[in-house]
Amino acid sequence: MKRMIIITLSAGGALLLAPLPAQAAAPKDPVRALKAKLVAGHGVRFTETTTLVDGSDKRVLQRRTGTFQFSRKGVAAADITAKDRGEAVPERVITIGKVSYLSGGLWAEKLPEGKRWYRTGGLRGGGAGFYGQVINPVEPSTMAALVKKGKRAGNTLTGTITFKELDKVSPWFAASIPLRFHDDTKVSYRLTLSGAGLVTKVSSSYAATGVFDTSGFDGKTMTIDTRFTSWGKRVSIKAPAPATVSTKVDD
Predict the structure, then answer these.
(1) Most confidently modeled range among 79-83, 85-89, 107-111, 211-215
(2) CA 237 to mean position of chain CA atoms
(3) Residue 202 confidence (pLDDT) above 50
(4) Which residue has the higher pLDDT, 31 or 16?
(5) 101 vs 80: CA distance, rounded Å
(6) What is residue 16's three-state secondary structure?
(7) Residue 168 to residue 187: CA distance in whole angstroms
(8) How many alpha carbons lie under 13 Å from residue 23 in its C-beta half-sphere?
C-alpha cells in the first residue's frame, strides 16, 4: 500500500493527498529461495554448454541436459545426458544417492554382452563431468558460499571461488571432476536470479592450465553456461532394471 503525504494549499486551505514514491522491493535471498524449493519428489531441469576458449577461437566440447531431483537437503538424484564429445552414443548418467549408473558414451563398448549400465559408487557426473559445470546452485552449502564470496547487483551475483573452496562445500564438485591438479585454480562465476531469487543461469570459467595438461588444453580457458528451468516440477528418477546392470567394465 502506498503511503500518503498531506499538503496544505494557502489559497483555499484545501488539502491534497499525494503518494510518496514507491520503495523498491528488497532482493530475495537466493539461499532461502532455494531451500523453499527443496521438497522431496520435486526438482529442476537444466541445459548446459561447455566451450573451450583459446583467444578468439571457441570450440564447443559438449552439451548436457538433465534433471535434479530434490531431497530436503539438496540433490537426491540426477538424470543427465551428454553429447557432442565425438562419441557415437550419448552418455547417460543416473545417480541416486551415492550410486551412479553409466550408459553409452565411453561405456558403450566396455560393458559385458547383454548389459546396458555400469553401476559404480563414484563418477556422479559420468565421464562428461570432467567437462561439466563445476558450480551446482541446487546445493544450499554451495549457494551460501557463492553469496558470501560474491557481489550482488540487481538480479546478478558475481565472484570467484577456488577449486579447494568448492571441494569443501559442494558434494557435486567433489564427485563430478575425476581429475584436477591445482586446488588454487580460480573459478569466475556469474549467477542470474529470477524475481523469486532462484537461479536461472550459471556462467563459470577457469584457466585450463594445469588441469588439462594431458589433454592438450594447457593455456586455454574452460567456460560453462548452464540454464535452469521448471523449478519445483514433480520429478521421479529411478534406477535401471537390475538385469541390465553390471558392476564390471572392460579396461
Answers:
(1) 79-83
(2) 18
(3) yes
(4) 31
(5) 11
(6) strand
(7) 14
(8) 6
